Amino acid sequence: MTHVARIDEGARTGARRRVDALAKPLGALGRLEDLAVWLAGVQGTSAPVPPREVSVVVFAGDHGVTGDGAVSAYPRAVTAAMVREFLRGGAAVNVLAGAHGARVRVVDLGVDDDLTDTPPEVRRHKVRRGSGAIQREDALTVDQALAGLAAGRAIADEEVDAGADLLVPGDMGIGNTTVAATLVGTVLGLDADQVVGWGTGVDDETWRHKRDVVAAALERARPYADDPVALLRSVGSADLAAGTGFLLRSAERGVPVLLDGVVSGACALLAERSAPGAVAWWCAGHRSTEPAHRAALASLGLAPLLDLELRLGEASGALTALPLLRTAALLLAGMTTLDSVAPPVPEQV
Amino acid sequence: MTHVARIDEGARTGARRRVDALAKPLGALGRLEDLAVWLAGVQGTSAPVPPREVSVVVFAGDHGVTGDGAVSAYPRAVTAAMVREFLRGGAAVNVLAGAHGARVRVVDLGVDDDLTDTPPEVRRHKVRRGSGAIQREDALTVDQALAGLAAGRAIADEEVDAGADLLVPGDMGIGNTTVAATLVGTVLGLDADQVVGWGTGVDDETWRHKRDVVAAALERARPYADDPVALLRSVGSADLAAGTGFLLRSAERGVPVLLDGVVSGACALLAERSAPGAVAWWCAGHRSTEPAHRAALASLGLAPLLDLELRLGEASGALTALPLLRTAALLLAGMTTLDSVAPPVPEQV
Description:
2 copies of one chain form a homodimer.
Chain A: H1 9-21, H2 30-43, E1 54-61, H3 77-88, H4 92-100, E2 102-110, H5 120-123, H6 142-161, E3 166-172, H7 176-188, H8 192-195, H9 204-221, H10 228-235, H11 238-253, E4 257-259, H12 262-274, E5 282-284, H13 291-300, H14 316-334, H15 338-341
Parallel strand pairs in A: 1-2, 1-3, 4-5
Helix pairs in contact in A: 1-2, 2-14, 4-14, 6-10, 6-11, 7-9, 7-12, 7-13, 11-12, 12-13
């Protein structure tokens, strides 16, 4: 049972009042104003500060959907290779985190490789190698789905206990947009055509195969549309289960999250269904080119900060948006008030 | 006569090749990839660096359109008051520049105040106090329009000579969105209804008056639609003339520009008409809520990086987008290549 922490409405009201008094026309900073007010609510102060301890967690896993023919432009072995690259520091997430002062942690939940050459903490939460082919079998057992959720919760706790004031979920896993599209389609009652995208860049033939895979998986998953745990067992994966647990725990602990692309969007949808109201703790960093992501954000009522046609995953969209969050807080803290600049505006000019 | 500097196509090709080799699916970084390639072309190197010496110039002026009844939510005196605030450091542009490591220069081209309490360099390029009421008289004399253009060119030269590697035009002036809408409407042959927006936040009655003012000004300006200098004289202002000269000179000097909102959009439209191809040196930081801005960007073929409903001016949108430009350069420089992560992908997976 998830108990969502309360947003500080008093802090929001105070921040809105401050925003409205700044030396600018009412509303002229547009969505940066809303962002400052959101930060106030999640930080519990009408004077929010730019997030300083930003923790990125990349949840990695492989997916059985890649077994019956391509649903991705890349072979499964790329997942393990990229996990190793995250540890070496040459991936997009590393560069972005370095540029914007965030730390990156990569966690193997279900990579189809033992990764014995990686540090034990990378593998500590491993649930299994790969997952079932969701077009015809369950992705996980119930125990594995619960283990994935628990791992995500534990990781959120570790990060928050280590001082994180902003959590950023990332993902790595060939085939994961297929799983995410299935989850979003099931929860929102959409058809495969409405949720399947080009992922990392498939061709038309692969897209059609991917759509057929998702259509079959949607068929299998329909009975569980209202049961997040059953959904993760039936058509999810250990890495998406962990992403979901991570988001649920953030909302329990009252720590804000900057969401990334379609994978964290699918997790957010499941988490919000498990714990209505949790979405108040999350901000959408960007909108990717995946149709399932657009649908998930719309359902969650989240307007993305960026829309730059990114489709990489790894938390790359969220980290690209991170400076906007900081900018919003700095504007609120640093701008003078209109009253101090000019006398009050008369009713009739 | 403007001689637009050449974009380095070789550098662009080299940067594109590098982008395509990075450890990510082809195109997965979306518009950040295009941004890195643009930077390569304007910096003349296939290994572009994040802009370091960013110079923001706020062009300030008052506008005769504010004389016959309100076109703005604010009285004219706010222009001079905000110029003083820019010098004190409490305006949005100051906070944003401080956050993102840019320097701010404010230049009075046509503020309706002698501003004798400000440093002489602020007033050195002053053309006149205010401008004509463009719904019924010329904004400037020809000599004043040319003086404004020359001032903008001189300022660009000063900034580039001082080491600027990115120029950012800003604006301050009650009534300036009315002038910008008129210029955009004239150049693109649009009606007042298609270009007039809510500016800093007018009410419906003020919007209708603003539309009538723009309709009258458009009528006056139509004969000069193809003559940028005559347009600036007839329905422009000294501050928009300077903004236009600033952009023209940037393209001659071969220094990139990050554009702000509708005012710099109108200047860009005039400058591109004067010197076709100059637009290659400019990047659109954001899209404001002003319809004339949307029209100007579409005509220029510029896709804005941000669309956050900002409508403040002062270079606030451009500065909010600045981290994206730096992020794009850092990704290109810092990411490893796909070949180094995983063996080449076979044709059939």
